[in-house]
Amino acid sequence: MVLENWEYDPSSLDLLNYYRISSNAVYPFMYNGQVRILRFCPCNEKDKSNIIGELEFIRYLYSKGYPALHTVKSKNNQELLQVHTPWGDYFAFVFERVAGIQLGETDYTCDICRKHGKYLGRLHKLSSEYKPPNTMRHSYEDVLIWAERELLNFNIFYDNTADTLNIIDFDDAMYHWYIMDICQALDSIMNDGCCADFSSMNACFFEGYREEFDVSDDIVAN
């Protein structure tokens, strides 16, 4: 019922069985042979302004050439819909599936770790220059520094063909300290079994990060 608002290949509906539900319901399907993802959530559980802010930020990243997910407009040319169903009202939108495999499933080398840091540094640089056109995201203790949701390994896909990373999840993004994202990324590297030598990976990560955005020696040392 929700999917009817977008174009899709009827032959691909079996893919809907491979859904995932957490804070959002996520369903894969296909259109013209390309995988797309339907995401929706109950209206009474999400703030519409925060979803709009998420989509605005994604559009900004896309306009800057950053490899984040790309949204797909509905049949009536809207990005975000409020859909009425017998089970309640839902906010819904669709995005194209990014290329690659989850970072945690790769052979996590120092080169990939450097890219991990580089892409986070680039994201922070773009975030520092971002001026929301309409909607301000929710803040934490009034810290007015934009930061996306932490880059955990399951939110990052490595495309071996293009040798790039693709980022998929900006839900629940907020204004926060950049160090939060750095700590979360490094914690994910250390605890997800990505590497045997964390000190080397830590150095590679910050080498990549500093290619795009500045970070103090104190933060690196700690």
UniProtKB/TrEMBL annotation:
InterPro entries: Kinase-like_dom_sf, Pseudomonas-type_ThrB. One of its GO terms (molecular function) is amino acid kinase activity. Coiled coil: none annotated. This is Aminoglycoside phosphotransferase. It comes from Pseudobacteroides cellulosolvens ATCC 35603 = DSM 2933.
